[in-house]
Automatic annotation (TrEMBL):
The keyword Lipoprotein does not apply. It comes from the Bacteria. GO terms for cellular component: plasma membrane. Residues 159-208 form the Tyrosine-protein kinase G-rich domain. GO terms for molecular function: protein tyrosine kinase activity. Its main location: membrane. This is Lipopolysaccharide biosynthesis protein. Residues 16-109 form the Polysaccharide chain length determinant N-terminal domain. Belongs to the CpsC/CapA family. It is a multi-pass membrane protein. Keywords: Cell membrane, Membrane, Transmembrane, Transmembrane helix. It comes from Thermoanaerobacter pseudethanolicus (strain ATCC 33223 / 39E).
Length: 239
């Protein structure tokens, strides 16, 4: 003997199964549209990444903010206070690197068709963790030019820091070299994202078209939308 709760539960499960079946049938009916939209999005992303988007390369040079020579001569052992002072100086130097006094000579020396603000936007300066090392990175569409600008900025920075603060505790560790790979656009990632978005958009369009389509196409539609019994079906005879 079935109770009302069991009957309701059975009806609910049946409705869920019907809904899932209908979803599957809708997707299968418009599979061609889903495939075309997904492929189109993937192809457009690939064309944009390979042929249209400007490649960007990043070259980096590293500098160390060490103790002054006088401090090193007075005390042969590295003190904790000296390290903390060097780290504070590294943060200060990071801001100084992007100043007009440092970047303007670079523009004039390399004859760059850029303003100071434009060059500043392509330069990133960061202290490496809790170390005494700062890294100067330059982004450019030409890998050799990116390395050349990064090295020129490092040289200009060292020259100006000596003049302004009268110190010589900044040294270049690694000079920038032309990068062999670009940082953007990330072609594989762009294509994968485009494929996923294309698939999601195509599924959305398919269900939107199905929702807007109110035509009767099968006996099941008559029962579903009109709640009328089907007395008979006239098959379509070609030719």
């Amino acid at each position: 003997m079935y109770t009302k709760e069991r009957i309701k539960g059975g009806l609910k499960i049946a409705e869920e199964e019907i809904d899932l079946r209908e979803i599957f049938l809708i997707i299968r009916k418009r599979t061609k549209m889903i495939v075309i939209i997904t492929l189109l999005a993937t192809i457009i992303s690939g064309i944009f990444s390979y042929f249209i988007a400007t490649p960007v390369y990043k070259a980096s040079t590293s500098l160390i903010v060490s103790r002054t020579q006088s401090s090193a001569l007075n005390n042969s052992q590295i003190q904790v206070q000296d390290i903390q002072t060097s780290r504070m100086l590294a943060a200060t130097y990071s801001e100084f690197v992007k100043s007009r006094r440092v970047l303007q000579p670079v523009i004039e020396r390399l004859r760059l068709p850029l303003t100071v603000d434009q060059l500043k936007n392509s330069v990133d300066v960061a202290a490496k963790g809790n170390t005494e090392i700062i890294e100067i990175s330059v982004k450019n569409s030409d890998p050799r030019k990116a390395a050349e600008i990064a090295n020129a900025i490092a040289d200009s920075f060292v020259e100006n820091i000596v003049k302004i603060m009268n110190i010589d505790n900044v040294q270049v560790i690694d000079k920038a070299i032309p990068p062999t790979s670009k940082i953007s656009p990330k072609t594989s990632l762009n294509i994968a994202v485009a494929a996923i978005l294309g698939f999601m958009i195509s599924v959305f369009i398919v269900f939107l078209l199905e929702y807007m389509d109110r035509t009767i196409k099968s006996p099941e539609d008559i029962k579903k939308y009109l709640d009328l019994p089907v007395l008979g079906v006239i098959p379509e005879i070609k030719n």
